[in-house]
Design a protein that fits this description.
3 helices, 21% strand, 3 strands, 58 residues, three-stranded antiparallel sheet
Length: 58
Amino acid sequence: MGDIDLIPLKQAQEILKISNVTLWKWVKAGKISVVKLSPKKVYIRREELERFVRESEK
Protein backbone atom coordinates (compact mmCIF):
# COMPACT_ATOMS: atom_id res chain seq x y z
CA MET A 1 0.00 0.00 0.00
CA GLY A 2 1.37 3.46 -0.91
CA ASP A 3 1.91 6.27 1.51
CA ILE A 4 -0.93 8.73 1.95
CA ASP A 5 0.44 12.23 1.72
CA LEU A 6 -1.49 14.47 4.11
CA ILE A 7 -1.11 18.24 4.23
CA PRO A 8 -2.01 20.20 7.39
CA LEU A 9 -4.75 22.78 6.85
CA LYS A 10 -2.39 25.65 7.69
CA GLN A 11 -0.02 24.57 4.92
CA ALA A 12 -2.94 24.15 2.47
CA GLN A 13 -4.07 27.70 3.28
CA GLU A 14 -0.59 28.99 2.46
CA ILE A 15 -0.45 27.02 -0.80
CA LEU A 16 -3.87 28.29 -1.88
CA LYS A 17 -3.27 31.78 -0.45
CA ILE A 18 -6.62 31.79 1.36
CA SER A 19 -7.83 32.29 4.92
CA ASN A 20 -8.95 29.59 7.32
CA VAL A 21 -12.53 30.86 6.98
CA THR A 22 -12.45 30.51 3.18
CA LEU A 23 -10.98 27.02 3.39
CA TRP A 24 -13.73 25.85 5.75
CA LYS A 25 -16.41 27.42 3.54
CA TRP A 26 -15.08 25.40 0.62
CA VAL A 27 -15.00 22.23 2.75
CA LYS A 28 -18.60 22.74 3.89
CA ALA A 29 -19.68 23.48 0.30
CA GLY A 30 -18.11 20.19 -0.84
CA LYS A 31 -15.51 21.86 -3.07
CA ILE A 32 -12.62 20.20 -1.26
CA SER A 33 -12.59 17.23 1.10
CA VAL A 34 -10.59 16.79 4.29
CA VAL A 35 -9.38 13.90 6.43
CA LYS A 36 -10.19 14.20 10.14
CA LEU A 37 -7.90 12.10 12.31
CA SER A 38 -9.34 13.77 15.41
CA PRO A 39 -11.29 16.98 16.05
CA LYS A 40 -8.05 18.99 16.13
CA LYS A 41 -6.10 17.05 13.50
CA VAL A 42 -7.55 17.81 10.08
CA TYR A 43 -5.65 17.35 6.83
CA ILE A 44 -6.10 17.46 3.08
CA ARG A 45 -4.76 14.66 0.89
CA ARG A 46 -2.13 15.93 -1.54
CA GLU A 47 -4.06 14.39 -4.46
CA GLU A 48 -7.20 16.23 -3.38
CA LEU A 49 -5.37 19.55 -3.19
CA GLU A 50 -3.81 18.99 -6.61
CA ARG A 51 -7.23 18.09 -8.07
CA PHE A 52 -8.76 21.22 -6.60
CA VAL A 53 -6.00 23.43 -8.01
CA ARG A 54 -6.29 21.84 -11.48
CA GLU A 55 -10.07 22.32 -11.57
CA SER A 56 -9.79 25.89 -10.28
CA GLU A 57 -7.42 26.80 -13.12
CA LYS A 58 -9.96 25.82 -15.79
